[in-house]
TrEMBL record:
Glycosyl hydrolase family 13 catalytic domain mapped to chain residues: 39-482
UniProt protein name: alpha-glucosidase
UniProt family annotation: Belongs to the glycosyl hydrolase 13 family.
Molecular-function GO term, any one: alpha-1,4-glucosidase activity
Class of this enzyme: hydrolase
Keyword Hydrolase: yes
Secretion signal, residue range per the UniProt entry: 1-26
Gene3D superfamilies per record: Glycosidases, Oligo-1,6-glucosidase, Domain 2
Length: 505
């Protein structure tokens, strides 16, 4: 786990030209290049009114946690009004906060208080689909002129037996047909996700404008940017052609993987829309002044497509400020060798562009301290059970312990990440052997290197080519038995199983 943390932190550092550091100090247009982002899952973070569900006031109460940790920006998973069919990614009102989380006034207060503490606030933007409870969809079903073409409606086809069938073979990411019949409208509507999440029709200029208005609405509330959800699915081929079979073994015709999604993901129009949104936030920043508002995209795509989300290859049009790198998750697993990790995940990415990447794996309530329900609330049954480990594993314990803790290691990593060597240094990534990975950054006579042994056995390696005899251990993983401030012997570096070290020289 810790070695993962080390990798992620070090790789989050942009390969900035040196001038950027100077510029960043003079102007906050570049703040996002150096910031550490923290994803908050509001439902599980802190429950202020003891109803079992984390909420915005809970986040307000705990804001000091972030500067203490070294975090400068928080991204909130969706907090908008939603029937919660898909964890809030099914939005029934883009301009209001779900009562589970509080009110729009709470959000305004959260933004103000966060800004006062130097923390930026990023909201989730879910443009591909609304909830089927959104008024737009209700009016679209009724055929009300303004909203009739807000969604992707198509007539049924008839099979050889005279049965009604969907207009094509497209499959939802959540399995089965991507089309659901609507009795009232007597047509099918498209949903690339759940049937309760009808896809918006971005070929309708009214939809494009309405969603741009949503972005402006939140910018007017003072937020610092958006993380755009499920962007790859925005546009579909307007002629609705059948998709070819993928030929992948082990899937049947109800599985998403059964088809090769050439007509439903990464269409050129989708990239164009991201460029339009980037123009919108840039124009807003220019007109309103203040710091750069940012766009981040989530795109489960190959590197070439992912790069297009940053902008056109000729650089004439800009896209997202950064895109999450899912190669860390998709291209490697626990059995990957150091060579696999360097080749498949790190270099593929560094050869393109590095970006900030965070991800939470746990949705159970946050473990603050040893009080009831780990301090998530004052005793009401939380919406998900609190981990039984909380008496031993909680923030307070990790902060107050005299020994090492993941919290302290994370803090130290965030701090070292701000050093000029890490911010501006040249980067070198090597697999020393099957299990040992080296990442090194050098800038102006100083270097910082990270070694970690991902293997289950201890190992001895020679790293003379990378590290001089005169070196200092700055940070060590929680399992490491070394003394802080001691040095390693580069001719004979003995790394325990899963040991990770950050060394300066
Ligand atoms: Ca609550
Ligand atoms: Ca779509």
């Amino acid at each position: 786990m810790l070695s993962t943390t080390v990798t992620v932190i070090i790789l989050t550092i942009s390969t900035l030209v040196n001038d950027d550091v100077v510029k960043a100090q003079a102007s906050d247009l570049n703040w996002w290049k150096h910031a550490v982002f923290y994803q908050i899952y509001p439902r599980s973070f802190k429950d202020s009114n003891n109803d079992g569900i984390g909420d915005l006031r809970g986040i307000i109460e705990t804001l000091d946690h972030f500067p203490n940790l070294g975090v400068n920006a928080v991204w909130l998973s969706p907090i908008f009004k939603s029937p919660q069919v898909d964890q809030g990614y099914d939005i029934s009102d883009y301009r209001d906060v779900d009562p589970d989380y509080g009110t729009i006034e709470d959000l305004q207060e959260l933004i103000q208080e966060a800004h006062a503490k130097g923390i930026r606030v990023i909201l989730d933007f879910v443009p591909n689909h609304t909830s089927d409870k959104h008024q737009w969809f209700i009016d679209s079903i009724k055929g009300i002129e303004e909203y009739r073409d807000y969604y992707i409606w198509a007539n049924a086809k008839t099979d050889d037996n005279g049965n009604r069938v969907p207009p094509n073979n497209w499959i939802s990411s959540f399995k089965n047909s991507a089309w659901t019949w609507n009795e009232e409208r007597q047509q099918y509507y498209l949903h690339q996700f759940a049937s309760a999440q009808p896809d918006l029709n971005y070929r309708n200029p009214k939809v494009v404008e309405a969603m741009k208005d949503v972005l402006r609405f939140w910018l007017d509330q003072g937020i610092d940017g958006f993380r755009i959800d499920a962007i790859t699915h925005l546009f579909e081929d307007k002629d609705l052609p059948d998709e070819p079979k993928s030929g992948l073994p082990g899937y049947n015709d109800t599985d998403y993987e059964y088809l090769n999604h050439i007509y439903t993901i990464n269409l050129p129009e989708t990239f164009d829309m991201v460029y339009q949104w980037r123009q919108l936030v840039d124009d807003y920043t220019k007109q309103d002044g203040g710091d750069q508002r940012v766009l981040m995209t989530e795109a489960y795509s190959d590197v070439n497509h992912t790069m297009l989300y940053y902008g056109t290859a000729d650089g004439r049009r800009l896209g997202a400020h950064f895109t999450f790198n899912f190669n860390f998750i998709k291209n490697i697993d626990i059995d990957s060798t150091a060579y696999d990790i360097v080749d498949n995940a790190i270099n593929k990415w560094l050869n393109a562009i590095p970006a900030i990447y965070t991800r939470d794996f746990e949705r159970t309530p946050y473990q603050w301290d040893t009080s009831i329900n780990a301090g998530f609330n004052t005793g009401a049954k939380p919406w998900l059970p609190v981990s039984e480990k909380y008496l031993k594993t909680n923030l307070q314990q990790e902060e107050e312990t005299d020994g090492s803790s993941h919290y302290k290691i994370y803090q130290a990593l965030v701090e070292i990440r701000g050093s000029p060597t890490i911010v501006s240094g040249d980067v070198e990534v090597e697999a020393i052997n099957e299990n040992v990975i080296l990442m090194k950054r050098s800038y102006d006579q100083s270097s910082i290197a990270v070694f970690f042994n991902k293997g289950n056995e201890d190992v001895v390696v020679s790293v003379n080519d990378y590290v001089p005899n005169d070196n200092n251990i700055e940070i060590k993983s929680i399992n490491s038995l070394r003394d802080m401030g001691s040095s390693i012997d580069p001719a004979n570096l003995n790394l325990d199983a899963h040991e990770a070290l950050v060394i300066s020289f």
